[in-house]
Request: fold
Amino acid sequence: MKPTLQILATACLMTTRLFAADPTPTAAAPDFAAMRAEVEALANLTEVPNYEVVERADATPNLKPILYSGLDYQGKPTKVFAWLGVPETTTGKVPGVVLVHGGGGTASKAWVESWNKQGYAAISMSLEGHDDKRAKLPEGGPERPGIFGDSTAPIKDQWMYHAVADATLAAAILRSLPEVDPSKIGINGCSWGGIITSTVIGIDPRYAFAIPVYGCGGLDKIPNHYGGSLANNEVYKKVWDANLRLDRAHMPILWHSWPQDAHFSMEAVARSRKSAAQSESLLSLVPGMGHGNLSDRPEWFAFAASVMKDGKLWIREKSTAVEDGKIEAVFVTQTPLESAVLVSTTDTGHTGGRKWIETPATLEQDGDKWNAEAAVPEGTTACYLNVKAGPVLTSS
Reply:
C-alpha cells in the first residue's frame, strides 16, 4: 500500500503545482488605436443623409425644421431634428455654418436666424435625440450621459461618436444646398458644443473656419467637475481628448470665452490653442460675458466675415511680452482700434474662481501696427490685454 500512497501523494503534489502555474485569465487591454481609427473614420461621412421637411406653422420659406438620418445606435436607425435656413436674399453662392449647442440645449431657430441675417446658410441640430422643444424623438439617438459616462460602451454607441457624426452629416446637408458654396462651411459651438467643435475640426479638415466657445480639449486637467470625472478615464484621454488631433486643424480658429468661466479654465483654452498651432487663431476673452448657449456675438461675425471675404483674419496678434513690470502686445490690423485695457488677477487656483480686474492700458498706432501697453499690478499671477474695434473685442 505504501508505494501506491506515495504515487498518489506525488501525483497530487504535481497537480497542485500545475494549477498554481496556470496563469489567471485577464481581460484584453483596450485597443485605443483601433478606437481612434473608428472616430477618425467619421471624416468619411461625405454623403448627404436623407432628410425631410417637418410641416410646422413656425416654418418660413427660408427657414425650416427638418429630420435627417443619423447613424445607427445600438443597432437601430436614428433621426436627428434640426433647423435649416438660408438668407432671404442671396447674390451668388453663400457661405454656411454648422451650429452646435451646449448642455441642456437643443436645435435653435434663433441661432440660425442670427447667422442668416449675416448672409450665411446655417443648420442647428439637436444632439440628444430631441426636437427643439426637448421632446424625445421616437427614433432619437442617445442622450448625453454626464461627462463621458458611457466610455465603457462600444465606440459606435457612445454619445460623443453620435454628436460628431450628427455635426458632420449636418455639414454635408449644407454643402448640398444649391445656394451654398461647399468650400465655405464653418462651425460654431458653445460649451459642450465647443468641446464637439474642438473635436470635429481635428477629424474633418474641410471646415473653412471654427469658433469654439468656452469648450476645448484637455478637460481631464481642469481642477473642477471635468477633471474630477475624467482624471482616470483612459478612453477620454486616449481617444476623445480634442488636443490629440488639433494639430490636424488648419482652418482659422476663434477661441472665445471669458476669464470667469467656471467650466473651462483659461489654461485649458490656452493648451488647445497651442495644440492647434497649424491654424491661424484669434483669442477673445470677454470679462463678464457669462456662460450659456449664445446665439449672437459680434466677435463671431467679424471673424467669419474676414475669413470668408479676404481669406485671412481681420486682426493678428504679432507679439506679447511681459518685462520690467509691464505687458506689451502688438496687433496688426487695418481696422482702427479704439481702446485697450489690462485684465489681470492676483489670485491662484482655477481661473474661473479668481477675481479679475480691468485697469487702463495705452494704445498707439504705428501704420497697421497697434501697440497696447500697461503696467502689471504687483502680485499679478495672470494677465492679458484686450483691444476693441467697435463692439468687437480681441485678446492677447
Summary: The longest strand covers residues 180-190. The first helix runs from residue 2 to 21. Residues 1-21 have pLDDT under 50 and may be disordered.
